[in-house]
Design a protein that fits this description.
single chain, 3-stranded antiparallel β-sheet, 12 strands
């Protein structure tokens, strides 16, 4: 797996191992007793192999590393590029610049590479910056429980399994958890069902077997959920009382055989049943975190609503077979844009996890928006355009300004004034009820 900074995608590249990898594998054959190791390549091929594998710094995304450099205040230069250029195998200048630009895009860094209050919080979360931002916003929107599940799943293995020869049965079982044409909500629904089934330990194995779920992976997801929640508490972004802290500690470090689930404080998760309002807020928080990971849906006659392209580079993309949207026309999902987390280049450019994005979430939370009162349009990063009524334009402009100001204050750990709380409540109500705007 290699990350393409220019196209912001991961690429599955078939390649031979390095000589050092082959030597290591040969050593494993004799670790316990004398053994044999068979390499399925010729001696000529072996002579042409690289001595060592490509360093991670040269094949994975640099965004997380760049953020760690800023938070550690490494005194090896005045910029992230100065620091990384001193590495034994330094990345290319252009890849470093693209990684920094990605951090600026999610508001973790300023244009001058100064770390922001949100960037400091993200540096304390052991996850992708996009998922970290998603968790922070979800906590403020009171939908943290499903956000923890989704973030944990995207950082571990999928809970869904597909046994050989039972592909159709597994697909039908997964479809039962599908909701809102969203792979992310499907993940949440599957985990929530597993959590309810765990109330009866004798039933849990049958439940997982019947629904083609991996009990081991689901237990690992709960462990990651607890880790993320612990980091949010330790960073003081989430404030809990002593009673909750003690219960959380007992559950997290319990050695019981059965999984102990942690309940998110109600102050940060008011709607555990994922009704329509909380589903909209969840999607809004997810869009805020994943942006600009968007797919633009074509509605031209030639494509018949079946095509979509990446917002960042206009490259055609397709639903991965594992997605609940596979086999569906993008134009039938009821949205002009879809968000994704993983996109991988193999035979095609496949988006693994996708979901529709509400127009209002993009206007209020994403990118740099320009409200043009003369033309009655809203431009987001000069890539997304909406045409709205004059009064709607003005109202959305003020609502966005107040919402982003309040989020900034929350990230700084400051309390909101009564007026600011009114604006926050209004913004959350609007995001929870309105999905699209007039175009």
């Amino acid at each position: 797996m290699r990350y393409d900074e220019k196209r912001q995608i991961s690429r599955l590249i078939q390649s031979f191992v390095a000589k050092s990898n082959a030597t290591q594998r040969r050593g494993r054959a004799g670790r316990v007793r004398s053994g044999l190791c068979f390499h399925l390549f010729s001696s000529v091929r072996h002579s042409k192999m690289a001595e060592h594998p490509l360093p991670e710094m040269l094949r994975l995304s640099l965004s997380d590393l760049a953020l760690r450099i800023k938070i550690m205040k490494v005194n090896l230069g005045t910029s992230i590029q100065d620091v990384l250029s001193r590495a034994l195998d330094p990345p290319s200048t252009i890849n470093i610049q693209r990684a920094v630009a990605a951090l600026v895009e999610v508001k973790a860094l300023t244009e001058t590479e100064e770390i922001t209050p949100m960037g400091r919080l993200l540096s304390k979360l052991p996850t992708d910056v996009h998922l970290g931002k998603f968790l922070l916003v979800a906590a403020l929107f009171k939908c943290l429980d499903p956000a923890l599940t989704v973030a944990a799943t995207l950082n571990s293995k999928s809970p869904f399994i597909t046994p050989f020869g039972l592909e159709q049965e597994a697909e039908r079982a997964k479809a039962k958890f599908a909701s809102g044409s969203s792979d992310f909500l499907t993940i949440h629904n599957a985990f929530a069902s597993f959590r309810r089934a765990s109330a009866n330990p004798g039933f849990i194995r049958k439940f997982c077997r019947d629904n083609y779920l991996s009990q081991q992976n689901l237990q690992q997801i709960e462990e990651l959920r607890q880790q993320f929640l612990g980091y949010l508490i330790d960073s003081s972004f989430i404030k809990v009382d002593t009673t909750f802290s003690e219960e959380f500690r007992r559950a997290r470090y319990s050695r019981q055989r059965n999984t102990r689930f942690v309940t998110v404080p109600p102050e940060y998760d008011a709607n555990t049943d994922m009704e329509d309002k909380s589903m909209c807020l969840f999607n809004a928080a997810l869009a805020s975190g994943l942006y600009p990971k968007l797919l633009n849906v074509y509605s031209s006659e030639s494509s018949n609503g079946q095509s979509m392209k990446m917002l960042s580079n206009n490259q055609a993309a397709f639903f991965h077979p594992s997605s609940v949207n596979f086999g569906r026309r993008p134009g039938d999902l009821g949205a002009g844009y879809l968000m994704y987390f993983t996109i991988v280049q193999s035979k095609r450019l496949y988006a693994w996890e996708t979901a529709p994005v509400d127009d209002l979430a993009l206007v209020l939370l994403c990118g740099d928006a320009e409200f043009k009162l003369i033309s009655n349009t809203i431009d987001i990063d000069r890539k997304i355009k909406y045409r709205v009524a004059p009064k709607t334009n003005v109202a959305l402009k003020h609502l966005r300004e107040h919402l982003l100001e309040n989020l900034s204050l929350r990230f700084k750990g400051k309390e909101l004034s009564e007026t600011q709380k009114v604006w926050e409540t209004l913004a959350i109500k609007v995001l929870g009820r309105v999905k699209s705007i007039e175009t």
